[in-house]
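Lecture notes, structural biology module. Today: joint structure prediction for complexes of two components.
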Amino acid sequence: MVEINSGYLDLVPNYLFKDIADKVKALKSSFPKAEIISLGIGDVTQPLPKVCILAMQNAAAEMGKIETMRGYGPDFGYPFLIQKIQKNDYQDVGINIQEDEIFVSDGSKCDISNIQEIFAKNIKVGITNPVYPVYRDSNIMAGREISFLPCREENNFVPEIPEEKLDVIYLCSPNNPTGTVFTKDELSKWVEYAKQNKSVIIFDSAYKEYITNPELPKSIYEISGAKEVAIESRSFSKTAGFTGLRCGYMVVPKGLNGYTENGEKISLNKMWARRMATKFNGVSYVTQRAAEAIFSLEGKKQVSEIITYYMNNAKILKQALEKMGYTVFGGENAPYLWLKVKNGSSQEFFSKLLNQAFLVCTPGSGFGSEGEGYIRFTAFATRENTMKAIERLEKVKL
Amino acid sequence: MVEINSGYLDLVPNYLFKDIADKVKALKSSFPKAEIISLGIGDVTQPLPKVCILAMQNAAAEMGKIETMRGYGPDFGYPFLIQKIQKNDYQDVGINIQEDEIFVSDGSKCDISNIQEIFAKNIKVGITNPVYPVYRDSNIMAGREISFLPCREENNFVPEIPEEKLDVIYLCSPNNPTGTVFTKDELSKWVEYAKQNKSVIIFDSAYKEYITNPELPKSIYEISGAKEVAIESRSFSKTAGFTGLRCGYMVVPKGLNGYTENGEKISLNKMWARRMATKFNGVSYVTQRAAEAIFSLEGKKQVSEIITYYMNNAKILKQALEKMGYTVFGGENAPYLWLKVKNGSSQEFFSKLLNQAFLVCTPGSGFGSEGEGYIRFTAFATRENTMKAIERLEKVKL
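The predicted structure, tokenised, for the full assembly:
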């Protein structure tokens, strides 16, 4: 008799966004002609940069000729892409990361959910509340108990350093869902905490391109000593519209160690390399060429235009919501707006928007108990739909 | 202090093919001008079918226009691809598989290594010896003990039904590395065994397109009752040269159950759906369009030409090796040749070929203890290199 992984029984029945998609689908079948606008799931709407399209078409053509076709690529990514990441995302901002510390992947969701595999089952995991559900669910699936770090309005949605010793802590900045961004001081405290406790920080900076304030850190490695305690995960999804292409990367510094039961140091870089060589087979060559193109001069210009477009959405939406009397967080160095619901629960507010205005948001309670009383809006819709959403919001009866 | 997953300490230091790649790299640096021929790692050399190139270029163009760009796709694959798989790979050969039993992925290696996650840690896992290392390593990483099922010449490299009760059994046909293909009778015995013991068979049929004998089963679902006990994994890598693109699929039938500690039935289809929705984010839209194109009339013709090309390599290589006095298995309904080493170990034979002939094979011992005394050749080289390899083999001093 084959026994199942009982961790799965402790999950809520559906992955959050699948649950919302099902509700929207149900509405669509009742009102087939309804024009539903989504500011819910953080999916992009703008076309990919032109440089990426061209790079993909050229790469596809290469695959059709025997002289230039490519089979299995390097497990951790092609050097042409790794070197561009190393230079542009790190070296140019004064951070020294080596090529073999960068692992190209098919996106942040996979990296962030798989990284826990290299740790023991009995480690203490610290996760903010509210949170991107993947941190939580991947650890529940692995049978771990989680310590939640509340992020509330009174703390500016920044988790406080806990008294207890946590072994692995997931931090996300710019934050999904609250739109909060760590200051260097706040992040330094966490790096210090991790050093003292020999903990590891999983730093998710998928939205780093949305930081406009130069005082705010885009990488955890801007904090001195972070390379001894932190893994950094990044994605091209929200940078250049790769949600449908799948490419990201993770940095696992060689100075970062875990420990055996007996206290022997083990390189986490080597463990992750082993994991990726054994259970992954690289990212499509065509996709890696598209990712490389983002780092060209023309690519950077095109990416910057897309980011500006979405950030203007965020600005327009935030101003309009505040004019309607809502309290709104985020939306300034982040593509997410965290709106305080006026009365009722997150779910009730979600249902009102969906049913009265055919408008999709994400109920804050889906991100954890501390998300109750909030909903998340994204800035990733088209300008037209963002404006329409505002018009509809003005008419909703609460 | 963050403790590591001790399962990793039980692995051999390097993933097999990475180890070989390192040795080849070392040789290259000693003899920069040497023309090294690889019949080692099972990587393809023929360009992708033209229909796939065109499909990718069109899909890339779509991603560049706001009207047609696609963000997140369905977690389990686009219906356009799932329906083609359902019809061509199953319905047309008389097997009824439903759309929501098919999960499109970024390749067999990922599926095969991730599937063990949905089972309890304490299950008994049965793995053939020799074996594709991923079955073994993914279970060692998860901390499981493995029962090995020896596949020897005297049994025609087919594992015998064991006395003990195994909960999950990995079977691969056409087999990597031995090139053996299960007959319907042999496979039926395993299905019967799994039914009796409430076990699950993970059936890896990545090489099914290489079966030319119509009596041999391409799918485990050709065996009556298999949908109650088997998961089937398939890949476009060896079918249409997708090793550098990454696309495959897994079938998890809805009639397949696991059990809680208390004996309660749990749908494995639902568990896998939860796993994929939580820890995966779909395959590149561009890649899925390429995969879809394989199933067009023109696509099937182009795929068939590629398969014939490789199978002719296998035939030529096998005949030449037999003429040289070697005993060779496989290579008839499989792209792998399993050669009995005349004297010395697998590793010694590997080193002789590499150093004397600049020819790469895979030492059988890398696939498990029962692989000792054998080496694996692949049929995936170009014709030209296959012929050159034969010439060089004739001159090797054993």
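Point to remember: Chain A has a mean pLDDT of 96.
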